[in-house]
Amino acid sequence: MGFYDWLRNHQGEVIGVQQWVDETSTFPFSTRFGGVEANVKHGVLRIFFGQSREVDEENSCDQDFGSNRLLVTGESVALTFHAPHLIAER
Q: What's the domain count of the chain?
């Protein structure tokens, strides 16, 4: 699926996750869910956990791999992440 970055604000708080998609032709991009931004051209899906969209790009570059899953059934989609090491500030 590609790697993912934890999106942080300027205070170091995690406000979302950004999934970089390797194979965009088979990934079910959707923006019909609140808090989701999709850029199909660049293969990027951003999922925000709240209202804040002020991302500190410099501190949002974890490039984590693995243990995330894409689950699709009918019109339902779930994207999971495994982050036992995740802390608010890097």
A: 1
